Amino acid sequence: xxxxxxxxxxxxxxxxxxxxxxxxxxxxxxxxNTERIELSTLSDCDCVMYPTxxxxxxxxxxxxxxxxxxxxxxxxxxxxxxxxxxxxxxxxLGSETDAILDCMGSEYxxxxxxxxxxSGRIVIGGYMxxxxxxxxxxxxxxxxxxxxxxxxxxxxxEQQSNYKVADLKMADMMDGKHALADKMKACVxxxxxILIFDCVTQEDLDFIADALVTSRLKFVAVxxxxxxxxxxxxxxxxxxxxxKKKILAVVGSVNPVTRAQMEELWLTQRTAKNTFVRTxxxxxSDESRAAEIRRVVEEVLENSGRFDILSVTGDGIxxxxxxxxxxxxxxxxxSVDEMSSQINEAFAEITYQIFAASKQxxxxxxxxxxxxxxxxxxxxxxxLCLMDEVLPLAAYGTLLKGDYDGISIITKGGMVGxxxxxxxxxxxxKQKLYx
Length: 435
Known about the structure:
The protein is α/β, with parallel strands linked by helices and 435 residues long. It folds into two domains: 4-235, Putative sugar-binding, N-terminal domain (Rossmann fold, 3-Layer(aba) Sandwich); 244-433, Four-carbon acid sugar kinase, nucleotide binding domain (Molybdenum Cofactor Biosythetic Enzyme, Chain A, 3-Layer(aba) Sandwich). Helix content is 40%, strand content 22%. Helix 6 crosses helix 7, helix 8 (256-268) packs across helix 14 (421-433) and helix 10 (286-303) packs parallel to helix 12 (336-357). It is elongated.
């Protein structure tokens, strides 16, 4: 049965949101002919998109359409209810939000995070900007059916809704998810039913979603689709997720190029989850190293149920975490090279244990020649069958012989490529795994 219901004010918006969910492996249906659809038809999908064609109609008609659809699709197993709104805030924002809240009941609140970073739509200081311009100074102000004359999101909702609206600015989002969750609950306690958030990046949307989950509030997501996809990713496991192939990225490089590339991967790939390796723990003692390897492996495997791309990254990617190799080499009675090899071998052991524990891992990305050599040695690999150049100095192939013969792998030097290089490599690997 569906676990996510998205009521959109037009077909295009429904399909845009559906496409975002499909990219995360949710089986998604869009209802186009309400007279022909039967609820039993929807039983094998994860997400239902239901357009009401209500953006340009009178607010009373829009309210009724949304209310009736919400009543039709309301069910105990639904984990995410969403009201898809226009990315430039056109249409019956307030009446349609009121409708779904009225249908769901007084315990529910609307959580509105209306940014769409990939399209240049952001909200900062309570105001929507479209590619840097205030919303009311763009062409939407001249829309013949639904002109928008204000850039302040809260004002637009207050003009249309019967419920109290509260907005949370970027300054409210600086103290962690628990603090933001408390602020959300305080707004609700003060009577707000619609909460509007500043949001500029995908990272902001993930943070808001984490705070929302932490708050345990019953909610309806109100947004152009990206926040809905974000919160769905945190609450819903696709029905066929157990069969999905996983990719493990293993990165030990500490240079600024690798840092920028990994940060872009984490922000761009919505199904990616990183675990940092505390490098200091790998060199303090044998016991400390074994415990850190075990911790990282367990964390990756725990997260693999909800994410397709798992990365293991040395915390030395951030300068404040880097260790003085000379100090530890002297303490351990070994050379700097020997200690470096010990760290690489620990990364290789982490990689081996993850692959040994889960057959879902079928793709491997390694950054840096030393890491790649250590991983191949631990896997007992005879070599690589090189098949393609992903980008200059980044090669794709499969492992030859050993414990994981045929596993797809991409290797790249730590200093190679622009900020999107690792993301390109992982995307390429995903395509190869699902060909």
